[in-house]
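FAQ

Q: What does a record look like?
A: Structure on top, sequence underneath. For example:
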């Protein structure tokens, strides 16, 4: 570990993940459900953006001015290149948190995101980040924070420390980090074979250890092998942010807000008896054995900077941030959504942890039918098209669940869509071009949803062919095979690589036929695919 990394793992780049919770439009819907006001977002910042895919997609797909830093110059350089290709104006640099947080030329922000950072950096860096949020997040502004938490990680802490120590003490520093990780995993296998009493007392730890090899080395490096790795309980987090004047708003993942989908009836009854919000979240985490939290916090404008009694501080801050009933209804009715997958592909089953719940077809089918043209509509408009017995709030709950499932997505207003369309298209063309030789990015920008939508590599190649003026399944499959063959990456079917050109082309044409019939109209409606010929 070198000093410039601040203890964060170096020597292996982070994955190219996209996280919708970092998008202000996603946050607006989550806060609308929770009854918390969401500011209009003009400026946003991501601290520790990794490869910068989320930042770039949200910058390209909206009118928000994005800023951010990541200490890794290779990752920051890649992110800056994407921003330049899109022409989004995103200001992405490779400064340390100490350098970035000391800058005096940054604007104040309506939205700040910290994803996969807080639990993996030093106490000194956490202090810098908290102070930055305290100073730079506007009153009413929103903080997105994800972190490893107790109690789910508690049994794993000594095992993780042991593996991290093994890498530091018993592997050669000059070896590639991948090999050092493999050596630690080999040791973990030997440890499991001895059937230690600790792992038998905590079988979930043994299962987690046994499954480590299924993960990408990049994930393992950044998840387990930083110098700093600290799961935090919610009460500690609440105290930390109360000092900076922030109050807990709600979970960032929509389905996490719905206790009916996550908790048993006795658990819900007990939680309802707890008036203290901090205690309620702690008890809920214990019920779920929570190991990772994704939360939104709101700046109340009361930056004390002084450690206070947790209960008194949080009780004082939370109620004033809630919407009055009429305002809450208006916030829900104003939410705009669009169907982002083919109607025929939708499975109305919700899976959350140990729960699997079949949604009511009689209620959800008419709602999906009203949206199957992939045109955005507000909840107020849907209220007229699909009235429900439980009124607007029941309708919004259904919309909210479908958004949490990824069936629907929040949508921008028409003027914002128009303003972001050209920038989104330029970013997507850069991502399409990367897909010719790489399979590491699986999301594209949609101005309609103000963020990203999932798309595997092969459909990206089909859309690149479409953007180059090629039309029809045969032309797309031929183009895609040219790219795959040039880079020595044949298709796989049922886990086995296809051996011949004929087999590869046949499989590509099968995929292209499905794409042309079901997905091209969807992607055209969502503003991702061209409707006519454009030369990049």
């Amino acid at each position: 570990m070198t000093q410039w990394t601040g203890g964060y793992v170096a020597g292996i780049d982070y994955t190219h993940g996209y996280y919708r919770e970092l998008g202000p439009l996603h946050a607006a819907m989550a806060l609308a459900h929770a009854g918390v006001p969401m500011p209009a977002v003009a400026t946003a910042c991501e601290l520790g953006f990794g490869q910068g895919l989320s930042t770039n997609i949200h910058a390209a797909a909206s009118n928000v001015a994005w800023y951010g830093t990541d200490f890794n110059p290779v990752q920051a350089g890649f992110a800056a290149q994407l921003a330049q290709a899109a022409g989004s104006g995103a200001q992405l640099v490779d400064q340390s948190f100490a350098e970035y947080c000391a800058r005096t030329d940054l604007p104040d922000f309506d939205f700040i995101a910290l994803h996969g950072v807080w639990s993996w950096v030093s106490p000194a860096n956490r202090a810098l980040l908290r102070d930055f949020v305290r100073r730079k997040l506007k009153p009413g502004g929103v903080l997105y924070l994800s972190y490893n938490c107790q109690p789910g990680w508690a049994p794993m802490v000594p095992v993780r420390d042991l593996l991290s120590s093994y890498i530091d003490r018993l592997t050669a520093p000059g070896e590639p980090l991948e090999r050092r990780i493999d050596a630690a995993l080999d040791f973990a296998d030997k440890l499991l074979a001895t059937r230690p009493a600790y792992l038998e007392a905590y079988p979930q730890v043994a299962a987690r250890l046994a499954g480590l090899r299924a993960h990408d080395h990049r994930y393992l490096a950044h998840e387990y092998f930083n110098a700093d790795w600290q799961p935090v309980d919610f009460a500690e987090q609440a105290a930390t942010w109360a000092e900076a004047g922030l109050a807990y708003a709600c979970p960032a993942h929509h389905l996490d807000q719905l206790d009916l989908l996550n908790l048993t009836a006795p658990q819900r009854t007990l939680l309802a008896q707890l008036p203290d919000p901090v205690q309620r979240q702690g008890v809920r985490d214990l019920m779920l054995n929570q190991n990772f939290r994704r939360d939104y916090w709101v700046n109340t404008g009361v930056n004390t900077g002084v450690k206070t009694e947790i209960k008194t501080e949080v009780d004082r801050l939370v109620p004033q941030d809630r919407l009055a009933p009429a305002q809450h209804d208006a916030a829900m009715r104003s939410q705009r959504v669009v169907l982002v997958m083919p109607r025929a592909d939708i499975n109305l089953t919700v899976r959350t942890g140990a729960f699997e719940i079949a949604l009511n077809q009689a209620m959800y089918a008419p709602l999906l039918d009203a949206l199957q043209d992939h045109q955005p509509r507000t909840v107020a408009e849907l209220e007229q098209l699909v009235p429900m017995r439980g009124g607007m709030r029941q309708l919004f709950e259904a919309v909210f669940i479908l958004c949490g499932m990824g069936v629907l997505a929040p949508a921008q207003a028409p003027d914002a869509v128009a303003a972001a369309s050209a920038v989104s298209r330029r970013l997507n063309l850069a991502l399409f071009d990367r897909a010719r030789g790489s399979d590491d990015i699986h999301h594209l920008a949609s101005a309609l949803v103000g963020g990203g939508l999932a798309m595997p590599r092969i459909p990206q190649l089909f859309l690149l062919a479409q953007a180059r003026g090629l039309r029809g399944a045969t032309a797309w499959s031929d183009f895609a095979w040219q790219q795959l063959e040039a880079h020595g990456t044949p298709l796989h079917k049922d886990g086995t690589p296809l051996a011949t050109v004929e087999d590869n082309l046949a499989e590509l044409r099968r995929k292209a036929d499905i794409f042309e019939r079901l997905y091209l109209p969807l992607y055209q409606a969502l503003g991702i695919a061209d409707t006519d010929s454009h030369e990049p």
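Q: Is there anything notable about this one?
A: Confidence is low (pLDDT under 50) at residues 1-13, 308-320.
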